[in-house]
Amino acid sequence: MWILFATLYGVFSGFYAVYKKKAVEKSSTLFVLALSSSIGFLLVSWCAGEAFSTGLTDVLFVLLKSVVVSLAWLTGLIAFKYYYISSLQPISSIRVILSFVASVLIFNEKVYWWQFIGVGIIFITLIFLNLYDKKSYITQGVNSNSKKRYITAYLKGESKYSCYNLKADISKSFYIAIKEKHKLNKRVLAIALFVVSCVLHEVSGIMDKLILNNVEINQMQFWFMLFVSMILWIYLLGECLIKKKNVIKKSDWKNIFIYILPLFLIVGDRFLFTALRQPDVVVSGVSMLKQLATVVSVIYGGILFKEPKLKYKIIYLAIILCGIVLVVI
């Protein structure tokens, strides 16, 4: 049964990632996370009676997990604001590698030679995806060679390259070059933040399994949603104090996607925690099925946001999924 529950989690998590990106188009990242988490807490508040019977050590462990997850959400959403979801989501495949290592070192699962081949396929494909994506992201055709072409044509006396046009073309070349360099820097920053987010999410996933050995699912969800919502509101208050103004707009409260997010989060986590509590669960197998979130978010998110070169990204994603299967079988 853990396979079914982990599969459902992957689907819900994929839609959750897409709608988070949609929500932050209209509202600040922190407000989206804080309000949606608070609504999520209200949805599980009926577990309060059972939750208060949790041991103090377990509650503190959930608090630590909440800090990790809140940082993972923040870095991930900032990355999505800077770059395409269909380009970033395949990078989350590194979580499979981290889970593979954790399953060996922490949960003592067996290792086979074909799993190392799978790890190699994932790494190599991610490298090629990054190179292809970089090439398609940067506008081609206007660079330093353009200036040489204009100057050469001008010195040869070609009439269509007047002094005025030459100056305008070179100025345009410099402007576009600066603009594209800025885009490239944002892309690199987005990838770096997303990698950090993936690592933090995988740390949280390992903590889930350890925590659920001692607490019930209702207890886990109650304390997690309480702590993560409190942490995010503290982050938001800090941002207001630093900027010395209220960063929340009236229109933010009307952002319908914020009210959709908690449903995907709560239901998805319920499926995940149920899977991890199964006696025959394979942690690395759960990690593989989590990657269904990548499939959903790349395809659905790519279509929803009309992102470029989607079919090529799906091809790379298919190769990555083949590597994932090798890692976890």
Q: What does it look like?
A:
Helix content is 79%, strand content 0%. With 329 residues, the protein is an all-alpha fold. It has one domain (2-124, 193-328).
In short:
By secondary structure, the protein is an all-alpha fold.
What is the N-to-C order of secondary-structure elements (H for helix, E for strand)?
HHHHHHHHHHHHHH
Count of structural domains: 1
Proportion of β residues?
A: under 5%
| Weakly predicted, low-confidence segments | 139-151, 158-162
- Proportion of helical residues: over 70%
How many E strands? 0
What is the overall number of helices? 14
Sheet with the most strands, sense and barrel status: none
How far do the termini sit from each other?
17 Å
The Rg value, from CA coordinates, equals 23 Å
The pLDDT mean sits at: 77
Helix-strand category: mainly alpha
- The coarse silhouette is globular
